[in-house]
Amino acid sequence: MTIVDLARSSSSFSFPADSEIRRILAERIEIHKQSVGIVVGMVGIEGRRIVAHGHFDTDNCRSVSADTVFEIGSVTKIFTALLLADMVQRAEVKLNDPIAQYLPREIIVPERSGNVITLVDLATHMSGLPYMPDNFAPANPDNPYADYSVEHLYDFLSGYRLTRDIGSQWEYSNLGYGLLGHVLAWRAGTDYETLVRERILMPFGMKDTGITLSFEINARLATGHNSVLAAYPNWDLPTLAGAGALRSTANDLLTFLETALGIKETPLASAFTAMLTSRRPTGIGDNEMGLGWGIMKNGGNELIWHNGGTGGYCSFIGFLPKMNVGVVALSNACTDVGVDDIAQHLFNPEMPLAFPSTWIS
Predict the structure, then answer these.
(1) Which of 79, 85, 254, 357 has fewest C-beta within 10 Å?
(2) Can you tell me the distance from the alpha carbon of 316 to that of 305, in angstroms, rounded to the nearest whole number?
(3) Where are the domains of the chain?
């Protein structure tokens, strides 16, 4: 991702008109066949706006909306990082605590050069752990995480040898964030789903976000689709939930952004602030890592962001702190294009879309 001239004052900032956004979504879905349904949400001090286009699935005329549920994939990592920041504020853990401190004593955690993996190493993708464990061998490739157990995780940790020094190199790791969610839940004496519900979702009023959905909420879950827009099964992540198990809506994620921006008051304000401190460079352009969030710098301006994807969905969440505005984008198709470019274009219309406009008015 790159940023082009975001140096506008918050007073002069304005998102494109709803009609323009709807045109972009219609092109993406109807002309370029890169999704079945897309919902985008925008928020600022003047309120929130939501634009949706498309359907629940290719055979269903039911339209997607602000309250349609999507798998959000790795956007879940932001919630996991917020749990960590909040637990630090509560003095339940410290960022530099070794993760071995919050695992059963018999589990051997990899070390290297006299250094141990800490909570902040996991939260910033600097642990030296790989993207996925080498004993990850799904019985069902369409639901790959479903049968990866805690026993698998512990066996991997106990047998793995780090290939580089801890903290020496950034490497995005689903394993690392799944492990982070696991150790935080272990420290709290509960499971990840309960922890995120009690510490974040309930206090924020995010009633349509979760892992295990009620019958009513599940009825609003859009069907996922693969790159050729064939229906694709939902994913289950029982052990590595902290890496990508949440489902949510545009409305709920805008509520999350409102708390991150300080538009809504929250007792987690100091935890949000801690998340935005640049802690590690990624070695990729101007990207730095906070806790969970990617931080893209453009002079004195910053885009705080994360994206996500599962087998049938893609997502984006991000905000410009200096302008006090944020964007959410959700799609019920997993394609190479995703929705990142749409979100960036909403922040700045000079940012090009993946597909140039072919619309004939």
Answers:
(1) 357
(2) 8
(3) 18-92+190-347
Range 18-92+190-347: architecture per CATH: 3-Layer(aba) Sandwich (3.40)
- Hey, how many other C-beta atoms are within 10 angstroms of the C-beta on 85? 24
- The tokens describing 283, both together, are 């070695």
Residue that is written with structure tokens 């990617």 in the block: 294
Q: Edge to edge, what strands does the sheet with 47-57 contain?
A: 60-63, 47-57, 37-44, 325-331, 314-320, 301-309, 294-298, 287-289, 280-281
Q: Which two tokens stand for residue 229?
A: 């827009």
Q: What is the pTM of this model?
A: 0.95
Over residues 8-21, mean pLDDT = 80
Q: For residue 346, count other CB atoms closer than 10 A to its CB.
A: 25
Phi, psi of 230 (to 5 degrees): -85, 145
The DSSP code sequence of 205-263 is T-TT-BSS--HHHHTTBPPEE-TT--EEPPP--SSSHHHH--EE-HHHHHHHHHHHHTS
For 70-84, how does the pLDDT look when each residue is reduced to its tens digit (9 = 90+)?
Answer: 999 999 999 999 999
Q: Is residue 61 a contact partner of residue 340, using CB atoms and an 8 Å limit?
A: no
On whether the CB atoms of residues 220 and 63 are closer than 8 A, the answer is no
Task: Give the mean model confidence (pLDDT) for residues 217-228.
Answer: 98
Give the β-pairing of 247-248 and 70-71. Answer: antiparallel
For the chain, strand residue ranges (E) read 37-44, 47-57, 60-63, 70-71, 111-112, 115-116, 224-225, 231-232, 247-248, 280-281, 287-289, 294-298, 301-309, 314-320, 325-331
Residue 305: in which H helix or E strand, if any? strand 301-309
